[in-house]
Write the structure tokens for this entry.
Amino acid sequence: MGDREFRIEKAVCEDYKIFADIIQNVWQAMAKKEWYVADNAEYTYRMLTTGQGQGYKAVEEETGAVAGVFMAVVPGVHESNMGYDMGLPQEELSLVVHMDSVAVLPECRGHRLQKRLMEAAEADLRERGFRYFMCTVHPDNCYSRNNIISQGYKSMMIKEKYGGYVREVFLKKY
């Protein structure tokens, strides 16, 4: 691991391809592909260009290489809003944000980048008024699950999401 230093930056629209490439790279290297629903370039582009998504990237200080990416998504009142799963009243649904996708290149793991990316997103999104931070994890993915729990997320339920994938739904409320 060495003395590598990373900074967290907000993504810009033009970063969509970097996001998609890292997500696909990480997914391809996974032994248990059912643990992760990999976003593609089209989805990432749509989220970053419409303002529905806010991206963050972990950039290695010395080289400028992107080591990891994170996407938060504002679902609005769309049926995909996990606030419906929680039984939130209609007026609260606009305060929900999905901590959507995170991917850290295997050679850059061990620097707490997933946690740092999520913390940066939470800080920005809290300033924008969001109060319900929600995410999903495959119940057997102990790495991501433990990371999320250590950040104060509470397990709410296990159910099928994303067209048939079993996921544990987590909530962190401010």
